[in-house]
Amino acid sequence: MAAIPLRIITLNEVQKHNKPTDLWMIIHDKVYDVTKFCHQHPGGVEVLIDCGGQDATEAFRDVGHSDYALTMLNPYILGEINNNKPSETKSFDDVKNNNKEEGTKMGLLLPRFSIYHINIFIIILLIICIIIIQLIKWGNL
Ligand code: HEM
């Protein structure tokens, strides 16, 4: 079965959607509406708002997102960008530097403590507990 062609969206149109309540961005020439997703983003909502209405390809790549992160994008696709030449794209460093002063004040430059971090913390805690239980069983403690 032939794939349904994606809606063609102009950069002008994307640029209008740059608010937390209406947030679009371009990643790899595809346009995504991440309004609903942004509050679940493991890297925090602020970095996404900062890329709102823009091409976030480089910033997305700079962070070294997992394949899982790529698949998470699928439900939010709106269409594809209509430019023939590559659009101007912000790197993750640009995003950080643009907001250096304000970001530092608000503590936004550090990734927020999220469910993603809590999961890693719980896994490490579990491993430590298992090691302690084993040591007690073997009479080392
Ligand atoms: C809208 C598309 C995006 C999706 C679906 C997404 C998804 C994710 C996911 C699943 C993670 C957890 C780590 C992983 O699995 O890779 C993550 C972490 C992160 N993301 Fe994104 N992301 C998006 C866009 C962005 C953009 C545009 C930026 C930067 C401006 C960014 C910055 C970060 C940061 C800083 C982390 C935390 C990395 C860490 O704690 O080690 N993300 N993101």
From TrEMBL:
Q: Does the keyword Chloroplast apply?
A: no
Entry-linked Gene3D superfamilies: Cytochrome b5-like heme/steroid binding domain (3.10.120.10)
All copies of the Cytochrome b5 heme-binding domain together span: 6-82
Q: Which residues cross the membrane?
A: 115-136
Family note: Belongs to the cytochrome b5 family.
- Source organism per entry reads Candida verbasci
Q: What is its main location?
A: membrane
Molecular function per GO: heme binding; metal ion binding
The answer to whether the entry has keyword Iron is: yes
Q: Which UniProt keywords apply?
A: Heme, Iron, Membrane, Metal-binding, Transmembrane, Transmembrane helix
Q: Name one Pfam family in it.
A: Cyt-b5
Q: Where in the cell is it found?
A: Membrane
Which InterPro entries has this protein been placed in? Cyt_B5-like_heme/steroid-bd, Cyt_B5-like_heme/steroid_sf, Cytochrome_b5
Q: What is this protein called?
A: Cytochrome b5 heme-binding domain-containing protein
> Domain of life here?
Eukaryota
Q: Name one GO cellular component term.
A: membrane
